[in-house]
Inverse folding.
């Protein structure tokens, strides 16, 4: 996996990191916990500056959460839950996940968008209730960008620090990252295999 990120950076530079982070928020084949540390690690190797890595990762993240915001803004809760029943198996998103993000947003308000970027279980889905509540876009972008910047910076600097100790950990980075990715793929397969649509709460009829 570290070879994949390395080749992506060599071929596409900051755009490749931003693209990966964008896709990670749309569909999570590779989590940010893998992408950004490895990008930071490569920055320490001189491929690009750590500031560029953080900027690219933050921009990619913010762009990746916008579709979820507009999903909530235009579809409404009933339709989103219907979508989760239909396609949640592949999106690893159940109706209970949507409701949990909605409760988080109702409890913390706008701050939920900021705090949610730091919590793996709600980091992407918190955009849905923000859209449902029609949170003003400037506020949504501000809180999302600050939270995403903190998260990507933390991950990138962790990889950057590892890169500065290259001689000590070079033999471990590749195998460890591969093990983590394999574990994530197996978890995804398990969720797909065991996914069951949930009974929806009775609400007013809404067509997709």
């Amino acid at each position: 996996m570290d070879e994949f990120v390395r080749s992506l950076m060599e071929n596409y530079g900051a755009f490749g990191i931003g693209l990966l982070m964008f896709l990670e928020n749309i569909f999570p084949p590779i989590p940010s916990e893998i992408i950004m540390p490895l990008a930071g690690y490569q920055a320490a190797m001189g491929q690009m500056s750590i500031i560029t890595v953080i900027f690219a990762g933050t921009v990619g993240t913010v762009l990746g959460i916008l579709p979820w915001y507009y999903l909530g803004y235009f579809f409404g809760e009933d339709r989103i839950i219907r979508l989760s029943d239909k396609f949640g198996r592949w999106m690893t998103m159940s109706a209970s996940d949507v409701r949990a993000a909605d409760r988080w947003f109702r409890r913390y308000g706008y701050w939920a968008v900021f705090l949610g970027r730091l919590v793996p279980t709600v980091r992407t889905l918190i955009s849905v209730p923000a859209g449902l509540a029609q949170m003003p876009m400037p506020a949504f972008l501000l809180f999302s960008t600050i939270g995403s910047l903190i998260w990507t910076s933390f991950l990138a600097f962790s990889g950057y620090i590892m890169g500065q100790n290259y001689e000590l950990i070079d033999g471990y980075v590749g195998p460890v990252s591969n093990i983590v990715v394999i574990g994530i793929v197996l978890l995804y397969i398990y969720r797909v295999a065991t996914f069951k649509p949930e009974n929806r709460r009775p609400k007013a009829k809404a067509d997709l």
